[in-house]
Predict the structure.
Amino acid sequence: MGILALEPLDRPDGMTTHEYAHRRLRQAIMVGSIRPGESLTIRGIAEAMESSPTPVREALRRLSSEGALRVLDNRRIMVPRMTADRFSELVSLRSLLEQHAARRAVPHITERRIDRLAEIDKAQDEAIGRKDNATALLLNQEFHRTLYTANPEQVIMPMVESIWLQLGPFLGIAMEHVAQLYFVDRHVEAIEALRKRDEDAVAAAIKADISEGIGGFERAAIENLLRLAGQSVA
Amino acid sequence: MGILALEPLDRPDGMTTHEYAHRRLRQAIMVGSIRPGESLTIRGIAEAMESSPTPVREALRRLSSEGALRVLDNRRIMVPRMTADRFSELVSLRSLLEQHAARRAVPHITERRIDRLAEIDKAQDEAIGRKDNATALLLNQEFHRTLYTANPEQVIMPMVESIWLQLGPFLGIAMEHVAQLYFVDRHVEAIEALRKRDEDAVAAAIKADISEGIGGFERAAIENLLRLAGQSVA
DNA sequence: TAATTATTTTTGTGATCACATTTTGAAAAT
DNA sequence: ATTTTCAAAATGTGATCACAAAAATAATTA
């Protein structure tokens, strides 16, 4: 699986080249189709998406500012290697941020949006049934995003997305070695809590969703996975 | 006060042009020397720092991903306008993130680093005594950064810096209209709590530092300031 | 055969150019 | 005097080129 793993995405006219490159790379990283340590070359990507180095470089710069890529001393760019410590840091931060985001969304939520959340959750369940991990992952993200963006003032969402980006490559590794990802679904709980506008219950559902989902990986399991994937844990 | 308000910063050799542009713009925004709404032109900046559009564009892309700049539909780039709602969102998130960062730093703190924190705090007090707002601001940030980066696994710091970047322009406005910024100093408390490795007390000190500092602005005062600065509050 | 050196290729970086869009400012019309 | 129309200037964007550094490959030596 390489950079072009995902279908080329549709490109609305008016979208700039660097924006397109950014979205495409972003999505590839987010669902874990670029392996950590794999080094990306500007010209390679440019050629793959039939453009030139300039816009690709801009996309890479943005992704590095978003924590999705790391620029080495050699100036080479790669997907950062995961470690058990970093993983733990990411998950605890994700829980903190998303609980906060959920709370601050509650006062702005509409019934209409709650209905939309229910639809997304349903679609996700179907994807899980089809064992379509990538789609399930994207729908899971869409669920969370749809919840948090009820709050019109968006300063948290970019940070949450940054966390997702940084966790993405690990999910890719997990999907390769665990065959079928175990999906937790606390979304129904969250939806019920939302209908009651119960901030605490919403936050609790999100917390559980995360801690039982990606947060459920035990340290030993993580280290084992990373070892299997050839990532020196040192 | 324009883009070149700050002295050109020293540029270590080996630092790329886009990196230099990024640092310089970043600092200018962080201490509030670029006015919100002021639109930045790529060529203008490039000329001002004697380079060309390409690296400047990369710097601007990064800053937009960091939340420091916003790209309009016209593709013009500007420092985002502040609103009372956004301000409240930023401050509450800042408090949440920094308390968390502080807690997770405690297990890694060394006496040596605590001493360094004490020195920074002293320097900040002196800057405040000189009524040197910009320096005091930078030293305050250095205090917080030095604390949080005790944790070797850094995923929070970039987000905290993003918040600072987004609050920067408001501080610029405040400094213009309030003459002398009121600096709160809960740093001594934080230092004492650190010596005891008391996570709760450290988090409490940070929380107080923020809520009594920038968080102390009342909604009415904020709206008034924004009005004075010609920012339509609508 | 293994290690070292030299050569070739690849890669990141930044300046420049051409093009399309937008903005600005002047001229004309209402 | 205000609005509208039109030309000129400015701006964002992306491709291309030249250069230096790094990586990969080939040749040489121990």
